[in-house]
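Because discrete structure vocabularies remain unfamiliar, we turn briefly to a single example record, giving the amino acid sequence and backbone structure tokens:
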Amino acid sequence: MPSVLHHLLLLPLLLAASAAAAATAGAGGDPPAYEALFDAWCAEHGKAYATPEERAARLAVFADNAAFVAAHNARANAAGGGAPPSYTLALNAFADLTHDEFRAARLGRIAAGAAALRSPAAPVYRGLHGGLGAVPDALDWRESGAVTKVKDQGSCGACWSFSATGAMEGINKIKTGSLVSLSEQELIDCDRSYNSGCGGGLMDYAYKFVVKNGGIDTEEDYPYREADGTCNKNKLKKRVVTIDGYSDVPSNKEDLLLQVVAQQPVSVGICGSARAFQLYSQGIFDGPCPTSLDHAVLIVGYGSEGGKDYWIVKNSWGESWGMKGYMHMHRNTGDSKGVCGINMMASFPTKSSPNPPPSPGPGPTKCSLLTYCPEGSTCCCSWRVLGFCLSWSCCELDNAVCCKDNKYCCPHDYPVCDTDHGLCLKASGNSSAIEGIRRKQTFSKAPSWTGWMELMDQ
């Protein structure tokens, strides 16, 4: 059922001619004329602004985006006069952002020339048995249960990790029959040989990391935090899903890319910098779009509609973007690079080995020869003499940082102990200026081995 927002889009459509003229002139439309539409949009997306000045500024941006949407959709719905766009736009959750703000928050996190930076050790896919084979006319891996729900990377530029986990989730389901949502946060925190967490990365190196680590943990156990963090070594050992290797599809070989997608979901790099990409709603996206790769997504199938072939693309911007988080992108355009460069940097994980059996819990944490803390906690020294710890306490947090006052501990992703204010900080400096302040955690005394056995017997 259409939302109130879709009905209210009739307003800018009725004003399409004037809106298009205003957009062409750089005026972006008259903000007061869009105020009712903006109020409805804020209610639908739960947006509120701290000051009247900020709201007025966002209304002006919204009005400019509304004029852009109206002008584009008027062309898409026009009869005759050349080939109209085969997709429509909408005022989605990003409609109060300028295009520069949107790009800074969601894009630009795959290095320039990313295709040339692919892992040189990756095998290159040459087709089924070295050649091309028959593939179905259409295929959607969602129908086979090989695709997890759409996720949202937020303002962390780790699209590469979402693309990589999506491909691994797909091949794991195809090979084992089990769909398991995998941890992007483990890749962000722990895969640092080349990749840079929220600062960007490439899928090849994510696959390489998982192979070297012997597997990857689940999203449920190592959840996403939308920020860089310190690698949790205990979670790193929970290897729930494994892959055996990975392969690259040769650049600009769409026929080979189709062969792989017919076998499993595939990671690809694209350029998401077109303004229309920000506000895409539905239909077959056919640009115009540059080919400088700055975003990573997942191809989960392909099909055709109205004489146009398309890829089914899963994004990581939440369900409020596109078709509940998906896009249809024009395929077989005659351009070897593909729309937005989608054929330029495709890769996929390989798997033939079964996943390891569930590992037993780590058990008590050993502090010293005769002293232990409960599972999932951290040993911290509470009394030290001449460099030797004579008494231990237990921090209730896993993989925590012990404060130097020997009384408190901090979460591993808030590692700075501010003893003056009783806080845990992300970084050193003025505590009032640091994002993500958390209170310290108190200790309980660590039991001896004898005490631990008594606890186990209870």
Q: What stands out?
A: The chain has three domains: 4-96, 106-350, 365-457. Residues 52-77 form the longest helix (26 residues).
